[in-house]
Design brief:
FAD/NAD(P)-binding domain; five-stranded parallel beta sheet; 9 helices; alpha/beta; 3 domains; binds flavin-adenine dinucleotide
Length: 409
């Protein structure tokens, strides 16, 4: 059996390992357009922060390809798939034949529309190469602007602060992490960022950059001019889908897959940031571009490619992070678009220095946000993940210190 994997990230690597586990002699090829062996993408911000050297974020041993008997085709870009002819087309006109194919090409930064984007020292933040360029730009830089209040924007801002720059964060929504937390939690996080020296403007986007060769200022949609020596853009990601043949493999926002991670083309699978599948908490298809999802989906895709029928339970958004002195945990659907049909219970707030919000649909917990005292987050996640009916009043559940053992009786 010949297995080809497009993408040398954690989804692709997890799939390759799962295939090798079941098929000792299968032919496995990984195609990746970056030249590095697999590395930890979330940790590229540590390179920017100066706590990790560039090129030293490996997630597997240096002998990984040899040990797993994988043929790596690095620095090579897939530009098309011949579904009927069972071949991947590369940018250098090579064709790679396959019996089973995994699309694990991840995502690209969502492009920003603004004038002056071609000025130097304006960066996206997705690859080790981006982090290397950012570090080079730090020399002599005093002020930075970070666009986006999501995970990537946060990590960029933190790294730049650690390097001693004055950082202004511009967030389009009304509060940071608006995809992960509700407004009360968002405002607590915002206060914490400001308390630690970040300047944050909400409800703002950039319409242009000014400079002479290198960026010297960002101009907001309100016309405010913010002087800066570098800019990092972290406005979310879009699945890499440009090489997917239209009409032959269904694509919505991401590549649509079933519970076996198979696309609408038999024998062709997708996993990780590129894939779209049913989200456990939302009950509809969603792209959850997160590391643990990429690991789990890659593994299950690999098992299915190797002939073992394994169902993936569905994707689930989840995150635990430390924002200076706040522990933040978020799982599932915490801000349902229409609150009708949902029940929301919450307790705490800024004054109490902790906050807890639960979102229920009928008798199922579908979302949870916790700020500080997050120890019970794992139990809440398990209730959501396993769709365990809640038979007690949710007001009891939301109280800190609730004994979850009571759910068993
Ligand atoms: C700065 C940053 C911080 C993050 N922090 C967190 C975090 O705290 N928690 C969390 O859960 N997630 C975080 N993430 C997200 C996490 O890194 C991703 O969810 C994860 O890396 C997805 O893995 P993947 O294998 O699907 O895709 P990727 O890691 O993107 O790997 C895809 C691979 O495919 C290659 N590729 C793409 N197109 C082609 C092509 N046409 N031909 C050949 N190769 C191609 C790419 O070069 C890449 O090597 C962060 C991401 C970033 C950038």
């Amino acid at each position: 059996m010949k297995h080809v994997i497009i993408g040398n990230g954690i989804a692709g690597v997890s799939a390759a390992e799962a295939i090798r586990l079941l098929e000792a002699t299968a032919d496995i090829t990984i195609i990746g357009d970056e030249t590095f062996p697999p590395y930890s993408r979330p940790m590229i911000s540590h390179v920017l922060a100066g706590s990790q050297p560039h090129g030293k974020l490996p997630i597997r041993s240096e002998h990984f390809y040899a040990d797993q008997k994988i043929t790596p085709l690095l620095g090579r870009r897939a530009v098309g798939i011949d579904v009927a002819g069972r071949q991947v087309l590369l940018a250098d006109d090579t064709r790679i034949g396959f019996d089973r194919l995994l699309i694990a090409a991840g995502a690209d930064p969502r492009p920003l529309k603004a004038e002056g984007l071609d000025l130097k020292n304006i960066f996206y933040m997705r690859t080790q190469e981006h982090a290397k360029q950012q570090v080079a730009a730090l020399d002599g830089a005093r002020r930075a602007v970070v666009l986006g209040g999501g995970l990537v924007g946060f990590k960029a801002a933190y790294g730049l602060l650690r390097r001693g720059l004055a950082v202004t964060m511009l967030i389009t929504s009304g509060y940071p992490l608006s995809m992960q937390v509700d407004e009360t939690a968002g405002r607590m996080i915002l206060d914490e960022l400001v308390r630690h020296g970040l300047t944050v403007q909400v409800g703002v986007t950039v319409r242009a950059f000014e400079g002479n060769g290198s960026v010297r200022a960002a101009v907001t949609d309100a016309g405010t001019r913010l002087p800066c020596d570098m800019v990092i853009i972290g406005k979310g990601v879009l699945p890499c889908r440009t090489f997917i043949p239209k009409g032959q493999i269904e694509v919505d926002l991401g590549v649509v897959v079933d519970e076996h991670l198979q696309t609408t083309a038999p024998g062709i699978y997708a996993a990780g940031d590129v894939a779209e599948m049913v989200d456990i908490a939302r009950g509809c298809r969603w792209v959850n571009a997160l590391w643990p999802e990429a690991v789990g989906q890659g593994r299950v895709a690999g098992l299915n490619m190797a002939g073992r029928e394994v169902a993936y339970p569905g994707s689930l958004s989840r995150n635990v992070m430390r924002v200076f002195d706040l522990d933040v945990l978020t799982v599932g659907n915490v801000t349902p678009r229409e609150e009708a049909g949902y029940r929301i219970v919450q307790t705490g707030g800024a004054a109490q220095k902790y906050y807890r919000r639960l979102v229920l649909r009928d008798d199922l917990l579908v979302g949870a946000v916790m700020i500080n005292r997050i120890e019970q987050g794992g139990v809440l996640r398990s209730l959501i993940e396993n769709r365990i009916p809640i038979r007690l009043p949710p007001e009891r559940l939301v109280a800190p210190g609730f004994n979850f053992g009571q759910l068993l009786y």
